[in-house]
Amino acid sequence: MASALKSTTLTKAYRWGGKSHEALRGVSLEVPKGAILGLIGRNGAGKTTFLRIASTSLLPTSGKMEILGHDVVDDCVAVREQIAVIPQESRPFYWMTPRELVFYYLTMRGHTQKDARARADEALGELGLGEWENTLVGRLSGGLRRRAMVAMVMASDAEMLFLDEPTTGLDPVARRSVWEAVRKAARKNRTIFLTTHYLDEAEALSSRLALLDKGQLLASGTREFISQKVKHPYRVVVEGGFTRGELEGYGDLTWLEDRWMIFTGEKEAREISRLALERGARLSLGPVSLEDIFLQIVGKDITKDETEEAEVAGA
Ligand SMILES: Nc1ncnc2c1ncn2[C@@H]1O[C@H](COP(=O)(O)OP(=O)(O)OP(=O)(O)O)[C@@H](O)[C@H]1O
Ligand SMILES: [Mg+2]
């Protein structure tokens, strides 16, 4: 399948205070066309730096990156023609209305006025901005302003969308409207590159995940593929029937006031279930959440070698 994004040992070092600060340390990542990639990582992991290089607003220090087959440095104009971006913490112009914002953004991108009007109608409606479309942005709440930004890029016909924390500060209903707009864009085979701190959002939206930590890609692939790579893919909670000593050997054990929680492997999870059944202990068992996976990986439970394997396998 053709790649929408391909980076090869990409590095970025910022120079300040007489020193070099490495924000990206050799990131190799491939995202197929039509995917929704959720890039996750802690503050300062390098997500925005990576997204800015991909969207041609920042030069890499070394390595290569291609977007839809075009080099982001040598062929940046061709890249810009095919992408739309919401930068982190960007704000729309205060002296325009959401309708004007979307309309002028589209006409600047080359849409006819008629097409821009029709697209603006659709995007503003989708993001629940109909009631506010003619109110000056300066009079809107922070969440509504953010939604106006999302409406702008969603209304475009860009092949690839870069959204840096698009839902930060949005209420739960507005978040869902952004999710729906993202899914709709993906159904039209557009590629979405999204960063988020909401792991439920990454889980609900992404067809692929990439986990950055301190400028390094620790894991990438589908959710299922990444969860198979962690040491403890199951979470078991038992109430009664066991002592600490009995459970300790099975994995990572935590006491939750009235019950035990264990992160463990499949074989061990089965064994505990069997024992719990015999002893009449209450038990719940399931695959680990993305948050658990994140903690296990950032805690370096999987090694760098396994990550490289994940990328090659392209699960
Ligand atoms: N313009 C800049 N000049 C110097 N250093 C920078 C600049 N932008 C980012 N950095 C540094 O690069 C590293 C990565 O920052 P980046 O903004 O890419 O992280 P992030 O993963 O997007 O974090 P967050 O989740 O907080 O948005 C950090 O150590 C940061 O201090
Ligand atoms: Mg950021």
What does it look like?
- The chain is of the alpha/beta class and 315 residues long.
- Among the domains are: 3-82 and 158-227, P-loop containing nucleotide triphosphate hydrolases (Rossmann fold), CATH 3.40.50; 231-287.
- Helices cover 38% and strands 28% of the residues.
- It has twelve helices and 14 strands.
- It has helices at residues 47-54, 76-81, 98-108, 113-126, 142-155, 172-187, 199-205, 223-229, 244-248, 266-279, 290-298, 304-313; strands at 3-16, 19-32, 36-40, 62-67, 70-71, 83-86, 160-164, 191-195, 208-213, 216-221, 234-239, 251-255, 260-264, 282-287.
- A six-stranded mixed beta sheet has the order 6-7-8-3-9-10, with helices on both faces. Strands 2-1-4-5 form a four-stranded antiparallel beta sheet. Strands 12-13-11-14 form a four-stranded antiparallel beta sheet.
- α3 (98-108) packs parallel to α5 (142-155).
- The longest helix is centred in the middle third of the chain and has 16 residues, at 172-187.
- The radius of gyration is 22 Å and the shape is globular.
- It binds adenosine-5'-triphosphate (ATP) and magnesium ion.
- The site of adenosine-5'-triphosphate has 13 residues, from β1, β2 and α1.
**Which CATH class of one domain?**
Alpha Beta
Structural class: alpha/beta
The CATH homology group name of one domain: P-loop containing nucleotide triphosphate hydrolases
Biggest sheet details: 6 strands, mixed
Give the topology string: H per helix, E per strand.
EEEHEEHEHHHEHEHEEHEHEEHEHH
Low-confidence stretches: 301-315
Q: Strand percentage, roughly? A: 25-35%
How much helical structure, as a percent, in the residues?
25-40%
